[in-house]
Every structure is written in C-alpha cells, then in structure tokens.
User: What shape does this take?
Amino acid sequence: MDAPFFEANDADVGPLVRIRSLLPGLARAEQRVAKVVLEDPSAVATRSITEVALAAGTSETTVTRFCKAVGVGGYPQLRIALAADAARMQARVNQMYGGTIELDDDIATVVNKVTFADARAIEDTASQLNLTALTRVVDAVAAAERIDIYGVGASSLVANELQHKLHRLSKVSFAWSDTHLMLTSAGVLHSGDVAIAISHSGATTDVLEALRAAKERGATTVALTNFPRSPIATSADHTLTTAARETTFRSGSAASRIAQLTVIDCLFVGVAQRLGPAAAAALDPAKDVTGTHRLGVRQDRRRKRPHPMTPDHLHR
Assistant: This one.
C-alpha cells in the first residue's frame, strides 16, 4: 500500500490542504482543533497554543498531537505555515471576491467564486498528488488484462469518463454504478486485473464493498478520493487523492468532479505513454471514425459509394 499522503511534491502542499484531507481520520478532539484552524487560519497564526486549545475545548497536548498528525512537527511550525499560506490564499481570494457563496451574491460574484474554486481544486490537487503512487497505478493499468471502475452518484460520471478513455486505448475496461453489478464484476477479477474505486468522501459503502471484493480475488486495487485516510484509501493498494473544497451551495460540487477528472486525465496520458505507438495510433485524429458525425468535418467521408442494390434513379 502506498504512503497515505503526499510524497514527491510535499513541499508545495499548504497546511490547509493537508488538514482538510486528513480531517475525517483525526481523533475527535483533534478534529475540533482542525475546525478551529480551518475557520480562521490567519487568527490561529497569531494565537498561543493555550488559546487554540481553549477555543477547541481540548488540551495543549492534543494541539501538539494534531500538529504531528498533519505533518507540521509542532505548534510553532504550524503557526509559521499558516501565516504564509493564509497570506497567499487571502490575496487570491480577495482578488476573486473569494470565499463562501452568500445568498445575496450577484451572478457575477457567483461566477467568480465558482470558477475560482474550480481552478483552485485543480491547482491544489496537482500540488499534493502522490507521483509515486500515480506511476504505480499507470504501470498497473497499462499492464492489466482488465480494468473495472466503480463509482456511484456523481462519481459514476468520472468512472464512465475513465472507462471511455481507456477504451480508446483498446484496454478492456468497464464502469459500474449499480451495487450488485459492481460486486458481480469484482467476483470475476483475478491477479493481473485492476479495480479502481472513485469516491470523493472515500466512505461510500457500495464502492468500498466492491473494492474489497476485488482485492480478495487478487486484483490490484486503486482508490481515487479526497481523503487519504478514508475507508477506501486504507483498503486500496494504491491511493490517488484530490484536494477539492466543498462550501455553501457546493456540496457534491463540480470542483470535486473537476479534481477527479484532472487525476484520471493524468492517469490516461501516463498509460498512453506506456503503450507507445499503439496508443498514439489509436488516438490519431486522422483515424477518428466519429469525424463523419460532425458537421463541416471531413465531409469527404460522407460521400460513400451507392449500395449496389440501390435503384439506379437514386444514384443520381
């Protein structure tokens, strides 16, 4: 199983991205500290450890444990990291009217906030993506005899997109969103196959059951989730994480889907590279048979010879 958190580009990951991702896996008292930090990171950067402990209704020892759990070492290091991160993020948020969408926001403000959140989801996802894990997943998918992809709800859209991409590379792949079909598919997998579970929360029982069943059958298992300590992440051989933030009016938002699509696009390109000339040929626009179904595109293909059984007067 891969390391649960960031690796190759660890230095680029801000503390707030770390804390949001690890929040579900923290102890309850540590979660209270996390919420205090996330609610006002710039204020926490100026507070003493005693003040933060009081605000979270816990002890200074718990605050220190929280700091270690999110990988910043101690409270002094957390304050420094928060100050730098908050200053950088606040400048960007202010520029785009950022923050939470309010009931009285006009449509221009809504557009700015939504697009900013979506763009930030991509940037944060890229900054924290475990490149070693991604490389291993690319290798496994490129060599796989069969790839089964599990996702329900909005995550099923991402599963279908990945299946479509892999199908273009002539990889035998299936996307499943029905619980019974997922479990049935998992039951016929074996060593050499790959099962990919997609869940923003990482706690969707349907995909978790299918992923575990696939693992029992010997398949290589992959989790794509926003939370590296979630159940599907800890159950998978390899974990790929996103870093999308859901806010008011945006639970299950496009930002989480966009972040997932970013990861699967990186996976797709990596697999195409591994497959070499065969993949390049499959993706050649000149060989795209769907081109004849676009108005104004390669109309010469539409001028087919008349069928020999067609009456002569229809040939004219």
